Here is the input.
Amino acid sequence: MDFGLTSEQQLVVDTVRDFVERELYPHEEAVERTGRVPPELGESIRRKVIELGFYAPNLPVEAGGGGLDQVTFTLLERELGRASMALTVFWGRPSGILLACNAEQRERYLLPSARGERLDALAMTEPGAGSDVRGMQCSARPDGDDWILNGTKHFISHADVADFVIVFVATGEEDTARGPAKLITCFLVDRGTPGFDIRPGYDSVSHRGYHNAVLAFEDCRLPCAQILGEPHRGFDLANDWLFGTRLTVAAMCVGRARRAFDLALAYAAEREQFGQPIGKFQGVSFKLADMVTEIDAADWMTLAAAWRLDRGLPANREIASAKLYASEMLARVTDEAVQIHGGMGLMSDLPLARFWRDARVERIWDGTSEIQRHIIGRELLRPLGA
Here is the structure.
């Protein structure tokens, strides 16, 4: 593995960081205070990213995207992680699962998403089915050439600003060695479809302004043409395309940790107690040493997993390890950054209290820490027949 960045990768890092600091940081305090992003601001961000030529960087060129390799895209996500998610959502990164679109769906969903004309949201989680995807109750039954959807999804990130959702529902059952298991099908559902309602979600303490939503399906009729992939093969589709979201979480955790660390380091060098900068006290300098060591470790774990993807190597365990370590690292680093700042760390004058609150959800969404440990353990034991 080459540990240096290419000139193109360095350009991506510099460009994204400059945009984040110049275009997004100034709006963070208002978003934190009001809990919302004005529609005109979101549209302005999206337009500026398109003009910059960085919209849909994760999609291949033939699909209208930027065609970045996994390592370079991970570096981009790392820089976006420095800013409020309520704002970075408008730096469009369409779900990679849209690459499974057929020819007709490609024109209606994939290409408009790559151009920034449509925004998608992914819907799996339900009130009674989070990590247990096969336990979902939201279902669809065939009715002639159509399917009738009924049920509820919740915790659906940014569905309030999405033009369509990619929703997974139960469409039958199959026998397995472990007993009956639900068959899953993936549907593309447009906002405004009769029987489909997007409702306000819960008031989360993490990532204010980046809303979750509740999706309600009440006899929502969809033609077969709205199925993404094949009927009853949605679980395979998810396994093929959605693993990368965990890598995105890891990368963004690294970026946010770097920003928190930078603030703590500067404060430790400037704040004086007992006639000298507090950074000179071992109790503070050792904290800084541990923080940067953990950040570097998470950074390289994340990039190493992306490097494996670029080379077509198995990376399931490595991605799970990166997500697990980076999300838990962020919790420790933000907590120590608050501690170094003392009482000021908890005041709204600084963004540290926000980083501290935001860090908590990273260990839950896109697979809890417990799920990541399960994946890692399974990948280790399977080759041994256990």
Summary: The CA atoms of residues 66 and 178 lie 43 Å apart.
